[in-house]
Amino acid sequence: MSLHFIEVENLARAFPQPGRQPPLKVFEHVNFTIEKGEFICVIGHSGCGKSTILNILAGLDAASDGAFVMDGKEVSGPSRDRGVIFQNHSLLPWLSALGNVSFAVRARWPEWSRRQVREHSLSYLKMVGLAGAEHKKPSELSGGMRQRVGIARAFAIEPKLLLMDEPFGALDALTRGVIQDELLEIWGRTHQTVFMITHDVDEAILLADRVMLMTNGPDARIAESVVIDIPRPRDRSAIHQHPEYYTIRNHLVDFLITRSKSLQGRVGGPGQQPRSVNPVRGTGVPDRGGTPRVVGGTG
Amino acid sequence: MLAGFALAVVVAVPIGFLIGMSPVLNNALNPYIQVLKPISPLAWMPLALFTIKDAATSAIFVIFICSIWPMLVNTAFGVASVKRDWLNVARTLELSSIRTALFVILPAAAPTILTGMRISIGISWLVIVAAEMLVGGTGIGYYVWNEWNNLDIAAVIFAIIMIGIVGMLLDAVLAQAGHFLRYQE
User: What is the C-alpha separation between B104 and A42, in angstroms, rounded?
Assistant: First the structure.
């Protein structure tokens, strides 16, 4: 019996290389756990395999090694109990907004009546503020609205685990902020378990309960799991005035600038969980002078 | 003519689907397609008459064999170039492969398939006129040749204009259908 809702054990992914070179290990010894209802963000430089981890969790890619246990059962392959929000909305362009959401809803609950599907889908479109635009095609919607339809579609199938791959990466900063607020609100209502990839430190602090930090690839690992205990509900316009905000932010940025590189391939190991860090209380914080022992100007 | 064209649609679209979905099948069948595709329609005529021994059925066969290739190639191309994202959506929703084919791949590839049909129907129309001249007995092609033998040039010119107009109408019908199925990304 597993104690956690989600347990990922020793996940590794290697890609075959041309010729006789050994396969390229993007990441290995990736261990982490997620509790039910937790919002997890993953940050790391590009190339560290964040998206690959997400694709493995979604069942769209297969791990070379390791296991992914959800709700006490090992999972492999895609399934409807995991919803995915892709970076580029990936709506079906020949269907309307409502059509896209109900397409997913119908696949999730094939036994539902037409009316039930419609009402369920409409209620989620309303939740993302798209009431009235449900008959528009994706090409008639703005980028932000398209991503909202994608969010509605993913939430509407009420998955046990919601996976988001840089969902706001393609949006401009203003729209991003608005949709982040909406996402926070919907999440506050539904308390889905979320695993989200982002590049944006501020976004991670705003949304996440815990931020997982990945070292650079290849040979990437999850080095730290940083607890964000700024109380909820959080407000995007006021959160940066919270006294703990910059302590956390500095810790994350420090990691991305120095430790993600200096720790590359040097942390973790088989079965080893990432170091749990609470920068505010100062627990688990690595000694600033001690860790990055980089000689010369490489840092 | 429509019988030959319909037969070609029925055969070409499913096979094109399979070729588009399976790279192995594509590699296996592509050489044959490439060899068969450039064969002139009228080159098939003697062989068809010899084996089928019926002028009307031979004409249908020739139309079938000539109009199948553009549809086959276009369907395969359309199916193969369906966006990975859309297929991933279907996979994460655990759609069966038949439902994926019907509800994701078919609408996504429909505009390309229809383009293939448009090219094909144009070819069919070209072929039928030529075939009727050879086979004789009925049709506008036969009429043209007959009037040439009568040296009635006015009738020949009239027939030529009619052939052009009918061809244009056939194309317009499919273009209109394509308009319905087109989507914007």
Answer: 31
